[in-house]
Design goal:
- This protein has twelve helices and eight strands.
- The protein is α/β, with parallel strands linked by helices.
- The protein folds into two domains: 162 residues, NAD(P)-binding Rossmann-like Domain (Rossmann fold); 97 residues.
- It has an eight-stranded mixed beta sheet, with helices on both faces.
- The N and C termini lie far apart (63 Å).
Amino acid sequence: MFSSAVQCSAVSGRIRVAVLGLGEAGGRLAADLAALGVSVTGFDPADSSEPVGVERAATAVGAVAGAAAVLSVNSARAAAGVAREVAGALAGVEVYADLNTGPPALKTAVAAALGPAAALLADVALLAPVPERGLATPALAAGSGADAFARLFAPLGMPVEVVPGEPGAAAERKLLRSVFTKGWAAAIGESLAAARAAGCEEWLRANIEATVAAADAVFVERLVAGSSRHAVRRVDEMDAACALLAALGVEPRVAAAAAAQLRELAAAARESPVRG
């Protein structure tokens, strides 16, 4: 499955991994690990799928017994409860990695649920869709277990960046990034919906693709600095865009939010003293 499979064999043959949660993300990670020769035991009380090469355990505690690493890929709602359930069965485990998407407070709750085993915790934030990339999904890792997570999983093909801080630091960075990525997706979706109604969707899609492909550090800085420098003019532009979208039958949610932010920047600029 991976071009690095031969290089990984020495590492994979020495470890056993427990995957708690075998949905889209957990199932794909478990299957990829098994394909590399890792001994994988999985548990999921709700999902009945059978990832190739993965041994199913009857309980979460049974899954983690004898494992060197535990990957918790449950829902955020279940994360702390699962940690509490297996906390007393982690003898011999080198890292307990919580891969659930949630706020930093969730990772703090998981650490508290692990009790004396909290030192094993790695807060892991996955930065791309796991069903598409599997074990090759880029990840951030924080907490006292972060180095162990990187040591075990980087040689198996996962790009892991260890970031400083307690559990929650990786989750925080992911959520900050999500403001951009999900906001970007919302803006593209809204503009394409309006372009479809206007009969020029193909043109706008090509223009967006070209703009994204050409984006660099200069482009990002121009967007950030330009919003403050040209806020007054851009308010008028976005008000016009909102009116256009409304006329086309598309609610301008993102456009209206952009206009509101620009108004705040314009007001701040007017209130700032002019420095000569």
